[in-house]
Write a structure and sequence with these properties.
3 helices, alpha+beta
Length: 91
C-alpha cells in the first residue's frame, strides 16, 4: 500500500511508503509528509535506491537536496549505501 499513515509511539506518525524505492517515489512521499504538518521534527528512514541509472554520488546528492528542501531533520539509512551516506553531516 502506498503512503500508509500509522500512529507511532511517543506521539509520532509514521508514513509507510515501502511500495517502491526510486527518486520519484521519494519525492511523492516527501511531499505527502510536508502536507501533513503534524510534527515539527521529521525523520526519514531510507533504504538503498538501486538501479537508478545514476552514479552513487550524483544519486545521493540529489536525495540530500530533496531532504533539505523538505526540511527533513534526520536521515536513517538502511543498506550498505544509504547507511554510509546517512552518516554524513546533515544538509
Amino acid at each position: 500500500m502506498r503512503l500508509e499513515m500509522k500512529q507511532g509511539i511517543n506521539n509520532c506518525s509514521i508514513i509507510n511508503d515501502s511500495y517502491n524505492s526510486d527518486l520519484g517515489s521519494l519525492a511523492i512521499a516527501l511531499e505527502f509528509l510536508q502536507q501533513q504538518r503534524q510534527h515539527p521534527t521529521k525523520t526519514v528512514i531510507l533504504s538503498d535506491i538501486l538501479q537508478s541509472g545514476k552514479s552513487e554520488g550524483s544519486l545521493y546528492e540529489e536525495v540530500a537536496g530533496m531532504l533539505e528542501s523538505k526540511g527533513i531533520n534526520k536521515l536513517i539509512g538502511i543498506g550498505k549505501t544509504s547507511h554510509a551516506k546517512g552518516k554524513a553531516s546533515p544538509p
